[in-house]
Design a protein that fits this description.
With about 230 residues, the chain is α+β, with helices and mostly antiparallel strands. About 20% of the residues lie in helices and about 30% in strands. It has five helices and 14 strands.
Length: about 230
């Protein structure tokens, strides 16, 4: 069966596991239940069953699908060949350009800091301090008194100019973007009298995963835009 990739496909499937679109837009990896069977849908091609797994992630070149299963990290070609696995326990992960290196979030919520796992490093856990901040902001906050490049890029630095109402939602255990950044923006918006709403979801990381929280986020977002754009309800 050949299926196009579309919002309708994702919506009609009723999937509790968030579908993940490949960077080239040609494939979607998804599962019908957490920890169940993963599938890959290809534009103009068949729907392929990958096997049991969770947390599907695509490589940057869209040629490989990564996922977690049985306490291991798996990697296989997008077309179904060349499958490899490593004994890496993780709550979540991000593949890097090197197909044998990933950024890992520990399965233990008590260890929120990510670390790098590399096949070449012999499974050594190399702590990843500030890599996300440096990658997105150009610098990290403990590199001296500054000025820092990340200050020039941060919306917090320009809070006095913000006039558009802002909805801030954040996971309490987000290890990619610390909750403190959202708190700081909230305080800045309150200081300058900017209309905003600040919501923190307990137990959530960088992705809102619990069903009740997802429903709340959808309803809250819908009501937010309905109130601000009453003519488009």
């Amino acid at each position: 069966m050949s299926l196009p990739l579309s919002a309708g496909l994702v919506a009609d499937a009723g999937l509790p596991v968030t579908p993940v679109l490949s960077p080239d837009g040609r494939r979607i990896g998804y599962g019908r239940q957490p920890g169940g069977t993963l599938h890959v849908v290809t534009v103009g091609g068949p729907t392929r069953t990958v096997g049991e797994g969770r947390t599907p992630r695509w490589s940057a070149d869209s040629r490989h699908l990564f996922f977690l299963a049985g306490g291991e990290l798996w990697r296989e070609r997008a077309d179904g060949g060349d499958r490899t696995s490593w004994p890496v326990a993780a709550r979540d992960f991000v593949p890097l350009a090197d197909l044998a290196t990933v950024v890992v979030l520990s399965p233990d919520p008590g260890e929120p800091d990510p670390w790098v796992w590399s096949e070449a490093a012999g499974h050594d856990r190399l702590r990843l301090l500030g890599v996300f901040e440096a990658a997105h902001g150009g610098s990290i906050g403990w590199e001296g008194a500054g000025p820092h490049p990340h200050d020039e890029r941060s919306p917090i630095s320009y809070a006095a100019r913000i006039t558009t109402p802002v909805l801030i939602v954040h996971g309490a255990e987000d290890a990619n973007v610390p909750l403190g950044q959202a708190v700081f923006l909230h305080r800045a918006l309150r200081r300058f009298g900017v209309e905003h709403e600040f919501v923190v979801y307990p137990r959530e990381g960088h992705t809102i995963a619990e069903r009740a929280h997802r429903l709340d986020l959808l309803r809250r977002t819908r009501e937010w835009f309905r109130r601000l754009n009453p003519g488009r309800s």
